[in-house]
Design brief:
With 246 residues, the chain is an alpha+beta fold. Helix content is 43%, strand content 23%. Among the domains are: 1-38; 163-242, Endonuclease I-creI (Roll), CATH 3.10.28.10. The two termini are 33 Å apart. It binds zinc ion (ZN).
């Protein structure tokens, strides 16, 4: 058995682009073991479920994970267990770490990182995922209603910053706009940072707006797919609430 620190190092090296052979050689672990850490469904004993068994839930980790799930996540059900997958852009290793931590704290079990073209999929199998994400269903999220249950709303109301971090660090981006304004007869260039959340589901955009209201961040629906935060004070407040996407 290898301890968790070896698995974590393997995960970091793979995320950084190391091949299975390179990582195996660097850590003195067989290639098949490295592969099994990435693809094998959990063999850990089933853990109790916060919804079915009343086990304590890390509410702040859950609130963030709910945001990530609504942004870039999906849940697939099989006969005996379900798999939660959150696709993360490889250029944001901090986000991959954050998602992994949230999944681990909510699941209290192993988390796997699976490399895919242009992204890393953070995934974990568990038969209780549908209890925690009752929004799962056939088809794409924007083709079905996404409504939070009262217990989920309560958690987000207590941890809106974490929920927003999950939403904006998956489907959001901080972009720089610019404009020219005349100052003393000369045109001067001004840069304006702006946060934008993009999602095709109107329900998920509404949830984003609701959470922004909870933390007093001014926003507007800037098009049919975007929620935009562009006032200077609001951008500064959101920066403080969710931290950099890195
Ligand atoms: Zn359950």
């Amino acid at each position: 058995m290898y301890d968790d620190s070896v698995r974590r190092r393997a995960r970091r090296l793979r995320t950084a682009g190391g091949t299975v052979s390179e990582v195996a050689q660097a850590l003195h672990v067989s290639r098949s073991t490295i592969r099994s850490w990435e693809t094998r469904p959990s063999t850990a004993p089933p853990h109790r479920c916060p919804r079915c068994d009343g086990r304590a839930l890390d509410a702040s980790g859950y609130s963030a994970l709910l945001g990530y799930y609504l942004g870039d996540g999906c849940l697939s059900r099989a006969a005996r267990y379900s798999t939660l997958r959150i696709s993360c852009d490889t250029v944001y290793p901090g986000v991959i770490d954050d998602v992994s931590r949230c999944v681990a704290s909510v699941r209290q079990g192993p988390v796997h990182l699976v490399p895919a073209p242009g992204c890393t999929v953070v995934q974990a199998g568990w038969k209780h995922w549908p209890c925690l994400f009752p929004q799962h269903g056939p088809g794409r999220k924007h083709e079905r209603p996404i409504v939070l249950e009262p217990w989920q709303r309560e958690i987000v109301e207590q941890h809106p910053a974490e929920f927003l971090r999950g939403l904006f660090h998956s489907d959001g981006s901080r972009v720089r706009n610019w404009a020219r304004r005349p100052v003393a007869g000369e045109l001067k260039r001004y840069d304006y940072p702006r946060w934008q959340f993009s999602n095709t589901s109107a329900d998920i955009r509404d949830l984003c707006g609701w959470a922004l209201n909870l933390v007093d961040v001014a926003w507007r629906a800037s098009s049919t797919k975007h929620v935009s935060v562009s006032r200077r004070a609001a951008v500064a407040r959101l920066d403080e609430v969710i931290g950099p996407k890195a």
